[in-house]
Amino acid sequence: MNVREFLQQNIVLLDGGTGTLLQAAGLPLGELPERWNLSHAEILKGIHQAYFDAGSNVVATNTFGANALKFSEEELEKLVAAAIENVREGAKRSLGAQEKFIALDIGPLGKLLKPYGDLDFEVAVETFAKTVRLGVKYGADLILIETLGDSYEAKAAVLAAKENSDLPIFVSCAYGEDGKLMTGASPEAMVALLEGMGVDALGINCSLGPKEMQTTVTRLLNAASVPVLVKPNAGLPEADGSYNVDEEEFAKALVEFVKQGARLVGGCCGTTPSYIESLRKAIAGIEPLPIAQKAITSVSSYTHAVYFDTPVLIGERINPTGKKRFRLALEEKDVGYVLAEGIAQQEKGAHILDVNVGAPGIDEKTELPRYVEELQAVINLPLQIDTSDPVAMEHAMRRYNGKPLVNSVNGKKESMAAVFPLVKKYGGVVVGLTLDENGIPETSEGRARIAEKIIAEAQKYGIQKKDIIIDPLAMTVSADKNAANVTLSAVKLIRERFGVHTSLGVSNVSFGLPCRDAVNAAFFALALENGLSAAILNPNSAEMLKTYYAYLALKGLDENCVEYVRFATERLTSQIQTQTAVAATPKSADCDAKSQLQTAIVRGMKTEAAALCKTLLNDRAPLEIVNGEIVPALDEVGVAYEEKRAFLPQLLMSAESAKAAFEEIRAHVLATGEQAEKKCKIVLATVKGDIHDIGKNIVGTLLSNYGFDVLDLGRDVAPEIVVKAVLETDAPLVGLSALMTTTLPSMEETVRSLKAKTPNVKIMVGGAVLTEEYAKQLGADGYSKDGMGAVRFAERIYADLCKKS
Amino acid sequence: MPNSIQIKNYTDLPDFDRTEILRYAGYLAAADEATSAILDECLQEAKTAFSFRVAYRTLAIEDFLTEFKPDESLQAMRLSGVDRVVLFAATVGLGIDRLTAKYANVSTVKALFFQAIGAERVESLCNRFCEELTETYAKQGVCTRQRFSPGYGAFPLTAQNTVFKLLDCPRTVGISLQDSLLMSPTKSVTAVVGLAKTEK
User: Fold this and answer.
1) What pLDDT sits at residue B4?
2) What is the model's pLDDT at position A507?
3) Predicted local confidence at residue A322, as pLDDT
4) Burial of B146 per CB tally in 10 Å (0-12, 13-18, 19+)
5) Residues of chain A with CATH 3.20.20.330
6) What angle, rounded to 10 degrees, do the helices at B33-46 and B108-139 form?
């Protein structure tokens, strides 16, 4: 019998701690325990045998830290081979008659993944893969990934296991007492992610004793449709290193978990064979509860899961379609602009963000995963990956830290053949559009038939109905008076007939009509009443949100109307705030709009600066405003800063106010087609190995405000990328930053590469560890201790450039 | 086993020290109204972003010397009369890094403030932890010396490798060490506190 079959019918007894026993056997401080697989094989065989003797069905190899980051590949192979052999030998020697399995144990890599750590996701996958392949080669029965504290690393490990073996995969994470992983994921988020990827069992181990785990275990059991694994420590450690829960108490607590539905139990730190023996006796005769299939439709981010049991709002603003300014941001790789759209939608109450970067000239295959990574680094909402390019879709799904919503598949054979394998591999909830080779059916019955086809085809790939959301397509009511009726009845029909969730791009309905918000909101209310589960909409639309919160309150979905009241108060307060802010704008008889704008910038008043600039644009040319208002204001603050009359935060607030004014100018220019002039291009980067970028960002903001065309390559940028950017843009100036002494060699290398391949470019450098002298030594043309210095240097370079031409 | 790694979680650190935060952000005067307002917004958003954790263990001075091989100047400056040390790693968690990154390309002033807030919090955490050490050891008639960290003075940054080996930081408190020897989360501190019979 293999372990998958065994798991279906039985409670699986795992083993207990190994580290504690190895220390007791003399493992010295700081020695890597995996080396003992070879050097002290008999001790390991003895420990494994003791666990089998105690009754364990599954014993894990002593390979917790056996990975290619810690060991050479040659040593790794020997250690893994020996580790598996040790368990096999332990099983052979044991007289226990139970089913026995060897688990290849895989622990965390000990490094945090990018962007907050320095380990690349694909490197993590490949590192895990090396251990997995050895496990397969030497005959492990299953893969036990355990003690992970990061959802993204868990995803990398599971991918490695799936791509390199057909073995059953058990994944166990270390939750804190707050019920979260170190990097923030909730139990429900982990269930969504791991189940989506098709693991055989999931659970919790380490860090806590049985008592402290109680809440998390319950949450896992309530969310999971696969067997749940529980491996607590023997309580919490005492000052002398001992643990405070004994065998009897431990067994008693775990019996309760089993009665609640846990199917795999064992122990972690501090537990020994005698704990497992007590546990075996305590669970003997308990009938395992069946693994209940939960009808939960959920997507997840790195922190939490979103369930579709109450209607869900999907923010549609990250999409260039019909938005010139957004397209420009994509062309300019202006990450800040895109992130700001995301942040604003989250603040307005979106539950999920749609991400679409498809536009002519944009390479979705690289840009979609890039923006997904940028967004998931700073916004904890689940993302909806929105593309018609299956390659871009796969790249983005692979890099996504959670279980995404995937937009979309449709009833065409080709579409289903491309999208379903991705959903099966990476996990996800997929939106199915009710159109196929014959177009969009005109009747609700016709759309339901396509829904049925999509659901049936998905099943062939092993994708369950709960992971499909049908979008019966909102059509324009101004083109066909029955369009909305058909969509509404399709929502109802599909929901009732197939029991699947539904979604709509609500605002399509009002295309071509004036005052679209009114139509959209009414349609939204009707759709909700017909059973709509999710709407893709603009969260900035107050009408839509009013409808949403009012609907929840009216339908008994908002206990005590708490959400509605919160929404109403916050909306109201923010409106009042905006009014007061406008009223507070510096205004007096002798103070016209001209000096008002300057004052607003000098004082760092962002909203006012934007509003005043907009007014000025009515009768003055953009360039005139830039040179006559914005730059003088910036100079005033810049000089005050240089003379230490103003401080860095004030300098930055002025810079941001100026940026807000510039944003108005850009919008004006885009609308009128007038040209905004820019000074020369400047390439900025924090050098490879360094992830500190605040200094570089300050420099970037200031340079942009002074009219330079800044291309910010970000942080941890390899020399060849900088060279490539300079060659492509023909920029006359590069700014490099480094914060750590350890990354100075990297800066040296970048300067060297630039000098060799782009000898005409000027290089300015800065960062905490640099000095004027060291900059010279590096071969840099300029050094600046702060952002204003960088501006002054850039202006000199630009002036020289102008003289020459 | 003695000398095992201990973990402490804190939920009750003192309130934010605004003056200190402003100082970290390079603002060396009483904040004007606009600056104050932005700082308030940042503090509000940062409030729930922290999870304060410390991992620590006590080492006999002999073990410390074997593991770290400190040079003579460090021994003379920091370790004279010291018979044990407490080695610790403290972190405020990844939340503040996420906030800093969130605003890095959106609002540099907010990013600057979040950095400053993180710096103030991790200092506050270290102070709190060290005060507790001092209190505990005072009862045993043992003095705690001023803490010192890898990368400062005669204690090289490469000592981080040893600290991480001895405290198992990724697992115990969720700090990982990059190849550049920087820590993630960035608002983390590792340090050594000497224990001695006498004040220095």
Assistant:
1) 80
2) 92
3) 86
4) exposed
5) 3-283
6) 60
CB contact under 8 A, A649 and B22: yes
Q: Give the number of C-alpha atoms closer than 13 A to the C-alpha of residue A214, restricted to the C-beta side.
A: 8
Tokens of A280: 């075996």
- Residue A343 CA to its chain's centroid (Å): 14
CATH code reported for the domain at A593-672: 1.10.1240.10
Q: Retrieve residue A387's tokens.
A: 């593309």
Residues of A in contact with B157 (CB under 8 A): 741-742
Q: Boundaries of CATH 1.10.1240.10 in chain A? A: 593-672
Q: Which helix (H) or strand (E) holds A112?
A: none
Q: Where are the domains of chain B?
A: 6-196
Q: Which residue has the tokens 């400190």?
A: B70
Cβ atoms < 10 Å from Cβ of A436: 19
| Side chain identity at residue A428, one-letter code | G
Place of tokens 């059953």: A168
Give the CATH superfamily of A3-283. Homocysteine-binding-like domain (3.20.20.330)
A435/A411 Cα distance (integer angstroms)? 6
The yes-or-no verdict on residue B198 having pLDDT over 90 is no
The rounded distance, in Å, linking the Cα atoms of B10 and B18 is 20
* pLDDT of res. A444: 97
Contact A654, A633 (CB under 8 A): yes
Q: Given pLDDT bands bounded at 50, 70 and 90, which one contains residue B2? A: very low
Task: State the fold for domain A681-804.
Answer: Rossmann fold (3.40.50)
Q: Count Cα atoms within 13 angstroms, Cβ side, for A793.
A: 22
CA-based nearest distance A42→chain B, Å: 23
Residues 737 through 766 of chain A touching chain B, CB cutoff 8 Å? 740-743
Of A427, A405, A429, nearest to A296 (Cα)?
A429
> What tokens does A401 get?
């830290």
Single out the residue of A500, A412, A437 nearest to residue A463, CA to CA.
A500
Q: Complex ipTM above 0.85?
A: yes
Q: What is the DSSP letter of A422?
A: H
- Chain A neighbours among B 155-174 (CB < 8 Å)? 157, 165-166, 170-171, 174
* Nearest-neighbour CA in chain B from A145: distance (Å): 14
pTM, to two decimals: 0.90
Q: Quote the CA–CA distance of A458 and A768 in Å, as a whole number.
A: 55
Residue A759: asked if its preceding bond is cis (omega within 30°), the reply is no
Q: Tell me the torsion sign for CA atoms A568, A570, A575, A577.
A: positive
pLDDT digits (tens, 9 = 90+) for A347-393: 999 999 999 999 988 999 999 999 999 999 999 999 999 999 999 99
A241 token code pair: 């290193």
Fold type of domain A307-540: TIM Barrel (3.20.20)
Question: By CA distance, what is A786's nearest residue in B?
Answer: B26
Distance, C-alpha A758 to centroid of its chain: 37
Closest CA to A622 of A674, A680, A657, A679: A674
CATH architecture of B6-196: 3-Layer(aba) Sandwich (3.40)
The ranges of chain A with pLDDT < 70 are 572-594, 674-677
Q: Find residue A504's DSSP bridge partners.
A: A535
- Phi and psi at residue A462, to the nearest 5°: 85, 20
Distance CA A803, CA B75 (A): 60
B177 touches chain A (CB under 8 A): yes
Number of H helices, E strands in chain B: 8, 7
The per-residue pLDDT for A584 is: 47
* Residue A219 half-sphere exposure toward CB, CA atoms < 13 A: 20
The residue among A325, A660, A335, A722 whose CA lies nearest residue B104 is A335
CA dist B172 and A745 (Å) reads: 32
